[in-house]
């Protein structure tokens, strides 16, 4: 995990910092596989920037309290994934 980037990848596994960063990641993958012109055309139709450098701080100024995070299904999923990355999450 790198809090200073919009997305990160290792081989075939990529992840993003959130919804908008997910769009950045998708455009990056299109640019990598199909070229800058294809990524730029998709970005134009989405009315978004074809490339953002990242590096900006996240906008959440303080962490979510543990009691609230414990009730969040996404938090439970991420904790399970970190426990053992080789075990499929069958309950999805």
From TrEMBL:
Gene3D superfamilies: 3.40.50.880. One of its GO terms (biological process) is regulation of DNA-templated transcription. This is Uncharacterized protein. It comes from Goodfellowiella coeruleoviolacea.
